[in-house]
Amino acid sequence: MSPANLAPDANFTAAPAYRLAAPVTIKASAAGNQTLRADTTWMRVGSIAHGDVFHTKDQIVIIDSFNVFEADIVVKDGKVVGYFIPVGSRFVVAQPVAINLAIKDPQ
Amino acid sequence: MKLGRAFAIAALALVGASACASGPSYADYQSSVPALKSAEGRLWFYRLGLLGGGIQPDIKVNGEVVGKSVSDGFFFVDRPPGHYTISNSTEAERTLALTLAPNEQKYVRMEAQIGMLVYTIKLVPVEREVALAEIAKTKFSGPTKP
After folding, report:
1. Residues of B in Cβ contact (< 8 Å) with A87
2. Which CATH architecture has domain B2-140?
């Protein structure tokens, strides 16, 4: 884990803005494996030096180690590159894996 | 040495048989649950099964004791939105870090796991549907009367 300062998204709203088209399994030595479910909705909450930070309320995303941390995902250049832990503002690196977050159609 | 540890674990497990929550069942208690204030969130805690029942550590939220981890028990606390570190300590401290939003309810399963000498309690966030089904099997163990 390393410190990471979140720059909140100025356009952040509580409404989900992105849809995950297909499941994605994230592998991180510090967090175990975790699969993000297809059709979950995500919102961009800001960015850190490692990439953009996305949050979902549709499933629980955690760093599952001896201690447990709720986490958001960090995406850069179409790949998940790690986790952002809001409590304490820390970054956890993951094996880069492609992710397809598509902007949801306006209702 | 291993035999001694095995006896210790067995003894703690036996103690667990008489260390379960004894309050009203969730079904009976449900109607007594106060409405959540809109500016606050709610943290639910529950523990299933007798494993390590003799181990009943305090559960702390940002360092404040809010209840005990009791076998087959549940309780809840309301807190303002914000970042929280939930902790308990047996032979080692284990924590869960989470964020609570206004009017949000989160569910934490307290899982007994065998440690080096005694059980430790891992704190795991659980999705609502799963948690409600599991809490239904437990009894109130909170510090306040229903």
Report:
1. 83-85, 97-99
2. Sandwich (2.60)
